[in-house]
Amino acid sequence: MSRVVHIGNLKIGGDNPIRIKGMLKTPFADKRGMMKEAKLLVDEGVDAIRVAVKRDEDVLMAGYLKKEIKVPIVADIHFHHKLALAAIENGFDAIRLNPMNITDKRKIIQIARAAKKAKVSMRVGVNSGGFKCSGSDDDKLAKLMVDEVAKFIDVLESEKYNAIMVSLKASTVNTTVLANKLFAKRFDYPVHLGVTATGPFLGAVVKSSVGIGILLNEGIGDVIRVSLTAPSYQEIQVAKNILNSLGEYDIVPEIISCPTCSRCSVDLVSLVEKAQLAVSKLDKTSKNLPKKIAFMGCEVNGPGEAMQADVGVAFGEAKGVLFKKGKIVGTVSKNSSVNELLKKMGVK
Questions:
Q1: Which among 308, 312, 296, 311 is positioned nearest to 264, based on CA atoms?
Q2: What pTM was estimated for this model as a whole?
Q3: Exposed (0-12), middle (13-18) or buried (19+): which is 76, by Cβ within 10 Å?
């Protein structure tokens, strides 16, 4: 089990829940747009938000966002150690540094001392793209990544600074998994998981899900950030679905549904899409929400799967049979609205 590190008042690591981090993509010139995006991520369920800090004036964004955003704000810093110092001074809850482009030991020590004094945590994050490593030797690249992080941690620890998190991201699943496994054998700092530069949307979702899922299933990982060439809210949605599939996230009910076949006599695709929208609007603070809702299209596997969910419906030729906690509780016509279905299934 990893040690506990704070991002502001958010606890990372130990036996705390796996956290979801998002990153703003709106240009700094559009401050209102950045605030709107941040609020959207909060509504989607993000636990912390990262902001790419590139210029001196960008460090003021923490104060601006914190006027209306209550989740911790993290500064993503590259190349310039003075930006890290300014971010700490201007109220960011954590900073991310890249050992590949902030390498001067004296500057690293200066940042560590400032962060320690301000009680600001730090993510030490390396990406595989920072290494001049040709070929497809996953083991070699993974070791190089861990060694680079270890050298940076040595400098931080020399200042008795331990508010450290680490990320080791590659553009391939294999290297990402190997690097994080190697790191977890040597250190107990919380790990921020993700696969970087994942490519087009569908492939990116698959890569992220496989890479993050493998590591979480082996007990490695305390924070996840799904990286997509897509709107940031979709990254949060994918992250939630990854955690949900592993039983690590029960704030939003999980919908399970069959893939349909020629036996299916209902438009299950449209039904599930409507159900997903309806479920997303449910009161997430309610203690009565089911953890798993099933929508099944025929009588072959449908009843079994529906009965295993907290609530579910299995459609036959004439009607759908409703199940709750493994028992039949009623029927519903094919033409019933999703809201009626959810209501009859005890979901409010």
A1: 296
A2: 0.89
A3: buried
